[in-house]
Amino acid sequence: MNPHQMPPSFATHHDWYSSSLHSLSSESNAAPAAAADDPLLYTYTAAFHGFAATLDEDEAESLRASASVLGVYEDTVYELHTTRTPEFLGISNDLGLSDPQQGNPSGKRRAFGDVVVGVLDTGVWPESKSFDDAGMPEVPARWKGVCEAGPDFSAKSCNKKLIGARFFSKGYHMASGANFLKKPKEAESPRDQDGHGTHTASTAAGSPVSNASLLGYASGTARGMAEHARVAAYKVCWSSGCFASDILAGMDRAILDGVDVLSLSLGGGTAPYYRDTIAIGAFTAMEKGIFVSCSAGNSGPVRATLANVSPWIMTVGAGTIDRDFPAYALLGNGKRYAGVSLYSGHGMGHNPVPLIYNKGSNISGDLCLPGSLDPALTRGKVVLCDRGVNARVEKGQVVRDAGGVGMILANTAANGEELVADSHLIPAVAVGRKMGDVIREYVKGNASPRAVLSFRGTVVNVRPSPVVAAFSSRGPNMVTPQILKPDVIGPGVNILASWSAAAGPTGLESDIRKTLFNILSGTSMSCPHISGVAALLKSAHPNWSPSAIKSALMTTAYNQDNTGSPLRDAAGGAFSTPWAHGSGHVDPQKALSPGLVYDLTAEDYIAFLCSLDYTIDHVKAIVKRPNVTCSRKFSDPGELNYPSFSVVFDDKKVVRYTRELTNVGTTGSAYNVSVTGPSMVGVTVKPMRLIFPKVGDKRRYTVTFVSKKGTNPTMRSEFGSIVWSNAQNQVRSPVAYAWTKLVS
């Protein structure tokens, strides 16, 4: 809605919205869709100007025709993007910062406990030791959040660590319709029945818990990135997904409650920003100084599969860490093949048993889909299953239900050599595509193939690491090709964190095992790592904008693994590119003092939005300001003062951008520029040296990219970098080059 068109006869926007809806239903002489219920589900005030309601097509059309309505959009469903990491990230003792505690007179730093991380997810398991508040100071006085009660969740479940818990289910209800009323499966409360929300919240800001492990795997102390920060949980995801109307209600409330960081490990498809619920809510959050971190999605290694690409959001991809869980398949020919597993039950012993693959005429048997295995052929055997289509852990359940005693889960081309460990219900080993192909050939070419599986536990200091996860969604950015996404990668493979006691480690209904911690993989896991690191940076630099924090994390990210080689991609084993890893792997210690930052204000983002082919009403829906005129707009969206570059030549030979750097380092610092890139592009930077006499000084430079004569316009893509450096700092920006807009 356009809130400034509210007639003066209404006391509140809620009254106005309600009246607008009732006049609709009286016009159509129809009862509201949910007969006994108010059709108005949510009134939004901060994250969005408008409301969520149940409407039929005619009512929606009538609303669209109203002058005070900016747009009417159907509710959409988002999906979840399903701990050695503090040490791997170099976070020991809060980046070496001392806690200034509450009431610090200098005001240069905020107390760790003054920063609140809001997590929008499946809720929280408050009894987890990760939310223990021992030694934490009183809750900040400015905090407006509450602990909402439910049938399985006491209002006393919160404490000085978990300082808020709310739930939002009206969109989920409406979508479930009568099914929900007949069979209410889920209790209405912030309690996490799934595990995902507890895992992400504890990753971002969990308290230290010693002797944590998943059934003996990854044993050690589990702690969040910002272990002294507060957590507020907003349950917006239910068994059938996360509905946009509920997500927006959660963001709306979190902004009003007073969170400093918002972490969303969920996403949908790509859409223009005015149709993207998370982007709209995040714009208001950014304006209010809240850092928003979102997962990039798990649709890799396919190109152009990113979610959450708006430039005011930190888009986080996933990499591996230096810990692994080796397991082995010993075949009847004496050859042993290495893989990974988190199986923790009784082993298979030492005697090989028959191994089967492709027993039957259908491909669903290769994939071990439910009902595809013949028990008569499977009983007592190890089954080789292709990865893909159904969940990895479900394949093990299918084998077990058909009488199988073990499983080798073999990758196909889609996943390459990427290995994800799972807590399988039966002895199971996951292997890469190359080994998978060798084992497939062994089974096909042998009259009586046999195998036995063994498990080695946990190993650390794995090389190379990090490696970009094959599942991590890839660029280019299909919403705005001139903005390079993802922004960074963080730890997202085999991550140990707290778990809900309501779910077994696999999440399968038949999994009756209980564990306080679980190991999961996904950009869902990398996102809260970045959220927690952002909370630490907010403590260290309370006056930095969300864009400055984002710039610090991007320009200091590293691009080499622990063997000194450029980052590799698990999907094919080749070197990774910025379309997979963005600016690189986050380096929290370096981000603390980046030297220079690329800062941005809400006005800059508005000029960016005005440079897109949006109507003024579309822009107003995102920025929620009545007087936006687009008098200031970029001639090209790539002019946004972003910490990375995406150069799309299209039909142009020359692209020129001006960027502005702000000195957050020392007085009198000077930087020189260096450029790397492909031979078919000429790059000139003016000036080549920047001098910053004072802290806070801003300096501009202009970079001109020229596509050289004879360059084939169908060139897929190339990459390079622009680095401003001195003895103390390297301020690095990746550059992606494309010659056509829709690079497929």
From TrEMBL:
GO BP: any one term: system development
Active site: D121, H196, S524
Residue span of region Disordered: 185-207
InterPro entries: PA_domain, Peptidase_S8/S53_dom, Peptidase_S8/S53_dom_sf, Peptidase_S8_Ser-AS, Peptidase_S8_subtilisin-rel, Peptidases_S8_3, S8pro/Inhibitor_I9, S8pro/Inhibitor_I9_sf
Hydrolase keyword on record: yes
Subcellular location: Secreted
Organism domain of life: Eukaryota
Compositional bias of kind Basic and acidic residues: 185-197
Residue stretches making up the Inhibitor I9 domain: 1-81
Xref: PANTHER family: PROPROTEIN CONVERTASE SUBTILISIN/KEXIN (PTHR10795)
Name of the protein: Subtilisin-like protease
Gene source species: Corymbia citriodora subsp. variegata
